[in-house]
Automatic annotation (TrEMBL):
This is Purple acid phosphatase. Keywords: Glycoprotein, Hydrolase, Secreted, Signal. Its EC number is 3.1.3.2. It comes from Panicum virgatum (Blackwell switchgrass). Residues 455-514 form the Purple acid phosphatase C-terminal domain. GO terms for molecular function: acid phosphatase activity; metal ion binding. Coiled coil: none annotated.
Amino acid sequence: MADTSCMVVMDSWCGSSGTCPNPARDPPLLCTAPIKYQYANYSANYIYWGKGSVRFQLINQRYNFSFALFTGGLENPKLIAVSEPISFKNPKAPVFPRLAQGKTHDEMAVTWTSGYDISEAYPFVEWGAVGGGQPAARSPAGTLTFSRGSMCGEPARTVGWREPGFIHTAFMRNLWPNKEYYYKIGHELQDGSVVWGKPYTFRAPPSPGQNSLQRVIVFGDMGKAERDGSNEFANYQPGSLNTTDTLVKDLDNYDIVFHIGDLPYANGYISQWDQFTAQVAPITAKRPYMIASGNHERDWPNTGGFFDVKDSGGECGVPAETYYYYPAENRARFWYKVDYGMFRFCVADSEHDWREGTPQHAFIERCLSTVDRKHQPWLVFAAHRVLGYSSNDWYAMEGSFEEPEGRESLQKLWQKYRVDIAFFGHVHNYERTCPVYQSRCMTSEKSHYSGTMNGTIFVVAGGGGSHLSDYTTAIPRWSIFRDRDFGFVKLTAFNHSSLLFEYKRSSDGRVYDSFTVDRDYRDVLSCVHDSCFPTTLAT
């Protein structure tokens, strides 16, 4: 009886692998993998009495659900019984809104998922200023989806496939800086009635250079987990719920989030994108949630990426590029900039070539070089893989303390344009370096930096929730602080001269590492090694 399991499956599943595209090596041997499953012996009475009960928490995923009881475990499942289908009151209802800053500071995008194709209903967002006394505006939404044929390999094309629904994105434009707005997503049906989502509010971004309190969250590699204790495939993100819950509790104390790659770790099981968007919805519905591309979103052999590995489970970037909006010129090229008040963020795509002579290298230099440091003094670079420094054990074994060819084409740009902080994920822990250039600490200071910054501080913030990574035992000189735990980083810009950096653990939200930066504009202009153009002696 120990190998008997109860699985949540969609109503369209089938019980034989002989009639569907399912590789024999991929458990369970069903046309469509279960949404999640529990072993029957989770119920203590089952072992002794042959009966018991288990509880599942379900989210709206647009289709009917059934519960199936199997014996034989995952390797040799044999169907015993199937429940009657159950469904939500309106399976097609709009759910899981996801805010993101648009291509300009006065634009906010909202993306959501529904079961309504454009032929059934017109998607839109209704919005306006809180307390503004003006009638609400309506902005139409574009609609996207993707098919099994869009997937590049298994399990995404086979047992992991399920219909993703329809993904809608609308834009709220000409926003007043820092003003609070309300919005509500909806679908107008053919008879003129409207199916509404829940109402939410958000605060518009500050204008570039605006001198106001600005607070930013940064982390990577969070994943998702099941609150009901169920199992799911690629189930190795034990800290995910802690990070999510801590950020939800602290929602009033930050303004924007950067999740720098490895979002749900769906790895080709498409239903898990719904699980993830539902998990983070209390955050994404109220704060702009900016993402980067990670190996578990993009990588698949022979698909134009920089790494010929199978980490995405055949997704090859398609779900990430569809479920979330980000202000890139080309959605398949996952690099973009964000101007947020006194910050500029240059978000790179470590899954595409970043070396000199590539389009991405040109973008990075353009992003770093065009910021006006008088008004946006805080310049931040971010990417998923460690293109800077990490004392993770596998990087140490390679002897480079970085992704192969990681910083060789970028460190001169970081130095030349005086990047303050470079963030990375991929390694599932936390680490902070000194201000460093060409593997050398440029100052002995560790907690308070003032005056001229002679190098860039590199931060690994990959402890969002996935299984933790080990360090090398020998600590490099440039490594200031390491913590093998789940956590995230918070940046607070008080004004144009003062910045606070804090690393917090997800388990309690307390600060375990921090530093401050105090400097003036002249300190940004001051020449350091490899940062200034040649000068002339002419008068």
